[in-house]
Amino acid sequence: MRFEDKVAIVTGAGRNIGESVATLFAAEGARVVAVDMDEERGQRVADEIKASNHDAIYVKADVSDEASVKELVSAAVDAYGRIDILVNNVAISDNKNIREITLEEWNRTIAVTLTSQFLCCKYVGEQMIAQGDGGAIVNIGSTSGFQGRGSAVAYAAAKGGVANLMRALAVQFAPYKIRVNSIVPNKIGSPVGKAEFDPTRAVPNLVGRAGKPDELARAVLFMAGEDASFVVGENLVVDGGLSAMMSGGS
Among all residues, which ones are annotated catalytic? Predict the structure, then answer.
């Protein structure tokens, strides 16, 4: 098992990508801290992991709130004594253009999608530094952070911030042997903030279908593990080849 006795925090673990990440980490031997604001979903994931004879706890936390993040870190350390891996997965989307969005909606989207990653990296990073033997942080970005789009202005801005926040943290945490990277998906599983997944929806990529949550989860596990020991500060694109295509035809 690649992550035996490692402790992994996964935010937004109650469904879709986060659920697959948490489940795969557990299957590879990690002790999982499943974080979600939805108690029913988060507890279900933790219970299913335990029912499969693996170790997990559920922690309810608002990762856009500093005090809540501090409590999350304390809960993880109280349960398992340390933290080895952080996966910043939680996000929400505004799905509005600049003329439609309110300041309140902008602030909330930035807080949940970008500020949450700053806070979790800050306080989990402090715990990793105190432990003295490094760690791995994987932030979930989006292709929306690398291109303009007709809607979701706050989400695009937040995910653009995720890409360069990751690079800054990779530089600042490197002296402590903490590797920071990002995974950049496009149309994986259900849309951001929604539970329904339509596998037949049209997706303009080279594979010809939407991605499956476990396909992205496997990329996350790669970035968090020893197979990626020489990969630092990288935005790994997992988009079915969308980014390789020229928009508007040849």
Answer: 155
pLDDT digits (tens, 9 = 90+) for 25-59: 999 999 999 999 999 999 999 999 999 999 999 99
CB burial string 201-216: b at 16+ within 10 A, e below? eebebeeeebbebbbb
DSSP 1: -
pLDDT digits (tens, 9 = 90+) for 127-181: 999 999 999 999 999 999 998 888 899 999 999 999 999 999 999 999 999 999 9
CATH classification of the domain holding 208:
3.40.50.720
| Predicted local confidence at residue 250, as pLDDT | 43
The yes-or-no verdict on residue 215 having pLDDT over 70 is yes
| DSSP 8-state class, residue 112 | I
* Strands of the 56-59 sheet, one edge to the other: 56-59, 31-35, 7-11, 85-88, 135-140, 178-185, 235-238
Residue 112 lies in a domain: yes
Token pair for residue 224? 């968090």
What torsion do the CA atoms of 233, 221, 9, 113 make, to the nearest 10 degrees? 50
Q: How many CB atoms lie within 10 A of CB 182?
A: 28
Count of structural domains within the chain: 1
Q: Compute the distance between CA of residue 33 and CA of residue 137 in angstroms, rounded to an integer.
A: 14
- State pTM to two decimals: 0.94
By the 8 A CB rule, do 127 and 83 touch? yes
Domain annotation covers residue 250: no
